[in-house]
Amino acid sequence: MMKLYGSLASPYVARVVLAARYKKLELPVEMPAGGIKSPEYLAKNPFGKMPTLEHDGRCVIESQVICEYLEDLYPNPTLLPGDAGGRADARTISRVTDLYVYPESRALFQHMNPASRDAAAVESGKAAYAGVLGKLDGLMPGGPWAAGEFSIADCSLVPMVVLMQRSIVPALDATDPVALPALGRWWTQVMADPTTSVFVGEYGAAVDAFLARLRGG
Ligand SMILES: N[C@@H](CCC(=O)N[C@@H](CS)C(=O)NCC(=O)O)C(=O)O
């Protein structure tokens, strides 16, 4: 029995959900009963973050590790296709998203509310965020998917792009990731594919609902 703790509005949870969907795995997603800071949940994930995968009594944390755990258990269809170089490309794109893009976007999220916005911090934050997106774009080796064939890189990039497009892009006029050349070509593929295009709508609705709750709507 496999279960994923978290909310789909989290891009890290969404990454795992997209990976499971690609592999056609049954993976129920639910918030832990007492929330992610409850003693029960902290026993599963000591960092109190989502997602956590529970499978046969084992808890696996960190979205990238969960995706690779699913890959090890269910290698077909693979999320790490190709040779060592192709798999390195896929892992690099995913890791750059986590280590460089999210921290820069998180700095901008602090300024979503116009009432408490610091204009100078927004301008420098937007430049830093655009800079890492440019580097990410340069790492994409050619299509149709982010690392060639469909991979963990796409599972990481789709939620990241949708989250930015629903939040800091409209609110702060930050760079839309798909305005960059390689990301733009990749986005055409994402929207042409039935699994990913449906997921874009589903995840976008979860993000919109989360942002509306934040605004008190
Ligand atoms: N590196 C972690 C990041 C997980 C993460 O930051 N999740 C956020 C939701 S988007 C969270 O649980 N935040 C709650 C908190 O930090 O209190 C992963 O890839 O799973």
Question: Would you write up a description of this structure?
Answer:
- The chain has 217 residues and is an alpha+beta fold.
- The chain has two domains: 2-73, Glutaredoxin, CATH 3.40.30; 84-214, Glutathione S-transferase Yfyf (Class Pi), Chain A, domain 2 (Up-down Bundle), CATH 1.20.1050.
- The chain is 59% helix and 6% strand.
- Helix 1 (11-22) packs across helix 6, helix 4 runs antiparallel to helix 5 (119-139) and helix 6 crosses helix 9.
- It starts with a strand and ends with a helix.
- The mean pLDDT is 97.
- Residues 10, 12, 36, 48-51, 62-64 line the site of glutathione (GSH).
Question: Can you give keywords for this protein?
Answer:
single chain; 217 residues; alpha+beta; Glutaredoxin; Glutathione S-transferase Yfyf (Class Pi), Chain A, domain 2; 2 domains; four-stranded mixed β-sheet; binds glutathione
Question: How far apart are the first and last residues' alpha carbons, in Å?
Answer: 36 Å
Strand content: 5-15%
Assigned CATH architecture of the largest domain: Up-down Bundle
The whole-angstrom Rg is: 17 Å
State the secondary-structure class.
Answer: alpha+beta
Shape: globular
CATH topology of the largest domain: the name is: Glutathione S-transferase Yfyf (Class Pi), Chain A, domain 2
Counting DSSP H or I runs of 4 or more residues, the number of helices is 9
Bound molecules: glutathione
Number of strands: 4
Integer count of domains = 2
- H/E order of the elements? EHEHEEHHHHHHH
Strand order of the largest sheet: 2-1-3-4
How is the biggest beta sheet arranged?
4 strands, mixed
Give the helix proportion (percent range).
Answer: 55-70%
The low-confidence parts are: none
CATH class of the largest domain: Mainly Alpha
Mean pLDDT: 97
What oligomeric state is this?
single chain
